[in-house]
Amino acid sequence: MRRYPIPLILAALVATAAVTVVLKISVAAVPIYAEPNFTTVVPAGSYAVWKGAANQFTVSANASGTVYVVHGPFAALYAPNGLPVNVTLGDNRYIVGDNNTVAYLVNIGGSEYGAFILKPATGYSGFYVTDAVPNSVCQKIYDIAYQKFGVTTLCYMGQYIANSTGFYVTYVGPGGVYKTVKYSYGLSFNMGRDGVTVYGVAGGANVAGYPVAWRYVTVFVISPNDNAEVVIYVK
Predict the structure, then answer these.
(1) What confidence tens digit (pLDDT) does each residue in 201-216 have?
(2) Backbone φ and ψ of 215, nearest 5°
(3) Fewest Cβ atoms closer than 10 Å to its Cβ: which of 100, 139, 154, 164?
(4) Distance of CA 69 to the CA centre of its chain
């Protein structure tokens, strides 16, 4: 293959036509995030909650029962080139904050947004997961979100309940206003040895020059009819 000096190639392009260069930025896949295994007694008719973010989950058990599934409101974000701040991700979601505090906002109805702290996840650089907001920074997040985007935020303080009707998350405003939001289940299935596969939901974009990928954390609400060993494989 003949080699051409770079200046000659550039000169030929300029002489013949205008050249449009399109940069295609690929967003890396979100790493797997999973809560630790837990062993506990869940009385028949009660509910245990486990959460994770992955391409797919396979759920099996050695006893009967029901598993309910909801995607969100928790999320995992992967920003290998750094996490942009005070930007919109689209689809009623924002990242807001400053050098010390960064939060993920998701619409919870009307003009109100639920705020979750983004904390680094172990094992990967640039990988973040949502967590409860410390009471000491709730007002800061409220102020930044309102100044930058004109939206009202309520902070997730780690409170939720689950039952057969849905997954309920409680948010608290800086003034002590509580709001409980119901997240309906998108899927439910009977537990069994054969296993059921559940797929994760993901997306990505180039945000303010930073590639950002995200995956909604899948919530599994497990209700056994008897003592059960439930196994969830992620990949």
Answers:
(1) 998 888 888 999 999 9
(2) -140, 130
(3) 100
(4) 15
